[in-house]
Amino acid sequence: MAGVMETEEQARNRFQLELEFVQCLANPNYLNFLAQRGYLREKPFVNYLKYLLYWKEPEYAKFLKYPHCLHMLELLQYEHFRKELVNAQCAKFIDEQQILHWQHYSRKRTRLQQALAEQQQQQQPQAPSHGNTTSK
Amino acid sequence: MAAAEKSTKEKLLSTLDDIEVLSRELIEMLALSRSQKLPQSGEDTQILELLVQRDKEFQELMQTAMEQGRVHQEMQTLEKEVEKRDSDIQQLQKQLKEAEHILATAVYQAKEKLKSIEKARKGSISSEEIIKYAHRISASNAVCAPLNWVPGDPRRPYPTDLEMRSGMLGNISNMSTNGVNGHLPGDALAAGRLPDVLTPQYPWQSTDVSMGILPPHHGNDFGLEPPGHNKENEDDVEAMSTDSSSSSSDSD
């Protein structure tokens, strides 16, 4: 890891490496790979994961192409999650759920928006009724 | 009144007793002298004098008693005043406490409001940037699957083995030779099979926006190079494609 003093180029390289790595965390299979090789048990690695939380800040997050990685990163802060990832079944389950969510995301969102629009429509007719009483 | 002195009431009563005794004696003497016709000039004058004295004392004591009564009344009035003032003060105290409570609440709420304003200001991002970013992550199907996606399609909401291997992480060992093409030498299969969508330099890896940003400084040594930084990376990554159950592995 870079020492206290690093050149700008080293810092830039480190930036790109960390950008790539944090996004790799969105891949449940990679997480399973890391877990099975024991990386997730090592304290320095856990510290590194905590350090990577800086990607949640907006000025860094804007570079992420795969935002799922942030959720995985948050989950990885918990020891229980890290322990569970050793199972291949667990990783497979996460993978399936992730893909299903990814698949149906647009449909879910439109449904949610429709529900919100309906809710607003229900509230709105009450407002015009105040004006109607004068015409009656 | 000092405890040693007799109270006015007692003095009055004793004086009255004296007067009573003296007047009784006088009357007895008069009655006696009338029946006996004996000159008792000395005694009756004495008794008369004493009587007059006692009477004077009595009058004085009455005056004192009246004074004392007046003073006592004044004291009572003053006490009432004091009570009234006391209750006024208590009332004011209650009101002050109430006011303080209200002000404290108001100040607290104002502080909370300021905090939330600060928080909102901190998190404020230009809407243009948000739209740009939303466009970026949606256009590349990173957040939402393409409409024609079916199981079997290699695209994923995360970087696939291929993308991981061809990035900077996957090529640390030969970064000096890493020109435009990020493929590993043994990756001829993948090289021939790349769809046009996946260009060698994946946008998720590069800082295609301004290069001004640098990662946060970390002074302490984590003690371990994160995986992917070692030379063994290639072997590990090869092994990973067999681990993954995704259908993206181009095995045929």
From TrEMBL, chain A:
Region (Disordered): 113-136
Quaternary assembly: Component of the Mediator complex.
InterPro entries linked to this entry: Med31_sf, Mediator_Med31
PANTHER family xrefs: MEDIATOR OF RNA POLYMERASE II TRANSCRIPTION SUBUNIT 31 (PTHR13186)
Low complexity: compositionally biased ranges: 113-128
Name of protein: Mediator of RNA polymerase II transcription subunit 31
Any one cellular-component term (Gene Ontology): mediator complex
GO terms for MF: transcription coregulator activity
Keyword Transcription regulation: yes
The species this protein was found in: Phoxinus phoxinus (Eurasian minnow)
Tree of life domain: Eukaryota
Gene Ontology biological-process entries: regulation of DNA-templated transcription
Keyword annotations from UniProtKB, A to Z: Activator, Nucleus, Transcription, Transcription regulation
UniProt similarity note: Belongs to the Mediator complex subunit 31 family.
Keyword Transcription regulation: yes
Job description of the protein: Component of the Mediator complex, a coactivator involved in the regulated transcription of nearly all RNA polymerase II-dependent genes. Mediator functions as a bridge to convey information from gene-specific regulatory proteins to the basal RNA polymerase II transcription machinery. Mediator is recruited to promoters by direct interactions with regulatory proteins and serves as a scaffold for the assembly of a functional preinitiation complex with RNA polymerase II and the general transcription factors.
Principal location class: nucleus
Subcellular location: Nucleus
UniProtKB/TrEMBL annotation, chain B:
Gene Ontology biological-process annotations: regulation of transcription by RNA polymerase II
Localization of this protein: Nucleus
Pfam families: Med4 (PF10018)
GO cellular component, one term: mediator complex
Coiled coil: 75-109
Keywords from the named record: Activator, Coiled coil, Nucleus, Transcription, Transcription regulation
InterPro entries cross-referenced by the UniProt entry: Mediator_Med4
GO molecular function: transcription coregulator activity
Region (Disordered): 209-252
Bias-annotated ranges (Low complexity): 241-252
Broad class of the protein's primary localization: nucleus
Domain of life where this protein originates: Eukaryota
Subunit structure of this chain's protein: Component of the Mediator complex.
Its biological purpose: Component of the Mediator complex, a coactivator involved in the regulated transcription of nearly all RNA polymerase II-dependent genes. Mediator functions as a bridge to convey information from gene-specific regulatory proteins to the basal RNA polymerase II transcription machinery. Mediator is recruited to promoters by direct interactions with regulatory proteins and serves as a scaffold for the assembly of a functional preinitiation complex with RNA polymerase II and the general transcription factors.
UniProt record similarity statement: Belongs to the Mediator complex subunit 4 family.
Protein name, entry field: Mediator of RNA polymerase II transcription subunit 4
UniProt source species: Phoxinus phoxinus (Eurasian minnow)
Lineage: Eukaryota, Metazoa, Chordata, Craniata, Vertebrata
Gene designation: MED4
